[in-house]
Design goal:
By secondary structure, the protein is α/β, with parallel strands linked by helices. The chain is built from 13 helices and 22 strands. The chain folds into three domains: about 1-130, no CATH class; about 155-315, P-loop containing nucleotide triphosphate hydrolases (Rossmann fold), CATH 3.40.50.300; about 330-490, Rossmann fold (3-Layer(aba) Sandwich), CATH 3.40.50.
């Protein structure tokens, strides 16, 4: 797409003469809002709080241009240049190896495009990002916004009060809640406060599984409010809603949209390693907004900032059922990988498994790598033929997890894919090869947090089988112990 400047307005142009790709126009003019213009409410709903490509819109270019000329649509450069170096406005990518170029039929030049966010549609040097500058869509509120009938525990209520305060004052807050603390319910009063003030809320998480799990819970708690659920392939992709639940990847489509952003599992992959996702979370916020971070396992830097008063935070150190977190046992198992090569497993691991099978106690067995897990599976199936294994690429993953919930599987072997986001009411947990680098402090805390989650079965055994203790194992146990101590100190745990 090429444009020419006509006074204070950009005009789309097909001919090269007296026109430029949008990235080469120094300043993009924004016409003032014409209050008498009959804007299209469908375009308003689609573009409000978004940054979309022309290809994303099913409206004629002439209609979009008319909205721009009357101040309702904004144009931004898809790719900005600084000292001839490209930067993607949508995902923040500045790494040259993530840019490519091609002969572009739209602008007639060799055009840079960003490969980092290509899955959201190609953004190139002549591509404008479109936004909305008109009135915000209105949503009528029901008389009673929050319909949740539950009651928060003392620890949950203290954290909930701080969330409400952060929402009202547009501050940042870390909610450091132990696994199984009921952190979703802690958000309800804050979300209610935001909605009552006509604010727009986004709950975002790195994983689709969590979006799918949270959506029905939020719809049940706020039945009179529209809730959009966004993930790859979602039907709600273009739905404007007061509450949006989205994977962090989907935030790349938003720009200055939300008054409150709640970032769940802030420590989870891929958010922790993808700068573009962190950029997207910031871009999706309004300049004045609240940001609530949720995690059971903040990284070392954040833990230090909490200790030194550099980060506002609140803790929920105890589960709602007032029982302490299971503390992992460290059990040396020798060179288990060497034994596995001989189609054997250490005696103490086999004894642990047999004990669970004899007592009909379900268990999760975590392995550091798929190949090792698959090597162990036939050995363990000699003990029980219905033992299963699961990993991220397993096409039957959801079915196997459901079978585990239905108690059709006595023992489920898994990689770190099940370290978070799944709840089984009555299980023990073991890590095979806890010394492996993949088992960082956060992963081990999350894994230990799979046990003892339900009120009916608040206890569970957690065992780290290892071929040499690591600092990560020690830090994980120390964090769990510290949370239990804080829970007792605050009177949130029964002795």
């Amino acid at each position: 797409m090429r444009y020419r400047l006509n006074g204070t307005i950009l005009i789309p142009q097909r001919e090269k003469e007296n026109s430029l790709p949008i990235s080469k126009i120094q300043t993009i003019p924004q016409p003032s809002l014409n209050p008498n213009f009959p804007y299209n409410p469908d375009l308003q709903l689609l573009l409000a709080g978004k940054q979309l490509l022309l290809d994303d819109l099913l409206f004629p270019h002439e209609e979009i241009q008319k909205h721009y000329e009357n101040g309702y649509v904004t144009y931004r450069k898809g790719i900005e240049y600084s000292r001839n170096r490209p930067a993607c406005s949508r995902c923040g990518n500045k790494e040259e190896n993530w840019f490519a170029h091609f002969p572009c039929s739209r602008c007639g030049e060799i055009c840079h495009y960003c490969r980092k966010c290509l899955m959201m549609g190609r953004i190139s040097a002549c591509t404008p990002l479109l936004g909305w500058n008109g009135p915000t869509p209105k949503h009528p509120l029901p008389n009673k916004i929050l319909e949740w009938k539950g009651k928060l525990s003392e620890g949950q209520q203290a954290a909930s009060n701080q969330v409400v305060e952060a929402v009202i004052t547009n501050k940042e807050l870390l909610v450091w809640a132990v696994c199984g603390a009921g952190k979703t319910e802690v958000l309800f009063e804050g979300i209610e406060s935001a909605l009552a003030s006509k604010k727009r809320v986004c709950i975002t998480t790195p994983r689709t599984d969590v979006v799918l799990e949270l959506t029905p819970r939020l719809k049940a708690a706020f039945p009179g409010i529209t809730v959009a659920s966004l993930y790859g392939g979602s039907e709600d992709r273009h739905l404007y809603a007061p509450i949006t639940i989205a994977t962090t990847h989907q935030l790349l489509r938003f720009y200055h949209a939300f008054d409150t952003v709640i970032l769940d599992e802030v420590d989870a992959f891929p958010y922790t390693v993808e700068e573009s996702l962190q950029y997207a979370a910031v871009q999706a916020r309004k300049p004045v907004s609240a940001m609530i971070y949720l995690t059971a396992t903040p990284n070392e830097k954040w833990q230090r900032e909490c200790r030194t008063g550099k980060r506002a935070f609140t803790t929920i150190p105890a589960r709602f059922h007032r029982h302490p977190l299971p503390v992992p046992h460290f059990t040396w198992c020798g060179n288990w990988q060497k034994q596995l090569k001989k189609d054997k497993l250490p005696t103490n691991i086999l004894h642990w498994i047999k004990e669970r099978l004899e007592h009909n106690k379900q268990a999760l067995l975590f392995f550091p790598h798929i190949a090792l897990m698959e090597k162990a599976l036939p050995i363990l199936r000699k003990l029980a033929s219905d033992i299963e294994a699961v990993h991220a690429e397993d096409p039957d993953r959801k079915e196997k997890v459901q079978k585990m919930r239905n108690k059709e599987i006595p023992l489920l072997l898994t990689t770190t894919i099940l370290e978070r986001g799944v709840t089984f009411p009555n299980i023990d947990v073991a890590v095979i090869g806890a010394e492996d680098n993949i088992f960082a402090e956060s992963a081990l805390v999350q894994i230990a947090g799979r046990a003892g989650r339900s009120k009916e079965y608040p206890e569970g055994v957690v065992t780290f089988f290892h071929y040499g203790k690591t600092e990560e194992m020690i830090k994980a146990r120390k964090q769990i112990t510290a949370m239990n101590q804080e829970g007792y100190r605050k009177g949130l745990l029964d002795s």
